[in-house]
Amino acid sequence: MSIDDHTKPRVNGSLLPNFHGKQVCLLGVAKDVDSGGNFFTLTTCDNQDIRIQMQEPLRERVSGLTEVTGTVRSKTSLEAENVVVFSEEASANFDASLYQKAIEVSQRHPNFYIQSGHIED
Q1: Less Cβ crowding at N or C end of the chain, within 10 Å?
Q2: Confidence of residue 8 (pLDDT cuts 50, 70, 90)
Q3: What whole-number distance in Å separates Cα of residue 24 and Cα of residue 39?
Q4: Which Gene3D superfamilies match (predicted)?
Q5: What are the chain's domains?
Q6: Is 50 helix (H, G, I), strand (E, B) or coil?
Q7: How far apart are CA 84 and CA 102, in angstroms?
Q8: What is the largest distance, in Å, between two alpha-carbon atoms of the chain?
Q9: pLDDT per residue over 59-97, tens digit each?
Q10: What is the pLDDT of residue 95?
C-alpha cells in the first residue's frame, strides 16, 4: 500500500479532471447553498465553479472561505466527506492568488509536498 492511496492533494478547479474518483482537498468561496443543505457551489481560487454534493445534509451555515475534502465525481463536481468553514476574519485575510501559486508549485513538485493522509500497517 503506497502513500498515494491515502493522500488528499490540494487542487484547484481546473485540476479536478486529473483526479476523477480520487480524494482531494478543495478550497474556495461557498455560494448558492441548497435550501435543504444537499449541495452548494464552491468558487475555487482559479475561478472555477464546482458543485459540492453532500453525503448528508449540512447542519451548519456554509458561506465564505470553505475547505471541502471529498471524492471527485466529474470535472465540475465533488462528493464531500468533510466541510470546514473558516471565520470571517480568515476569509478576509485569505490571499487567493498566493494559494493558487502554492497549488501550482505543489503539483509541479509532488514529492516535496506530501499532503494529508496516513499509512496503516
Answers
A1: C
A2: confident
A3: 17
A4: Nucleic acid-binding proteins
A5: 3-87 (2.40.50.140)
A6: strand
A7: 20
A8: 42
A9: 889 999 999 999 999 999 999 999 999 999 999 999 999
A10: 95
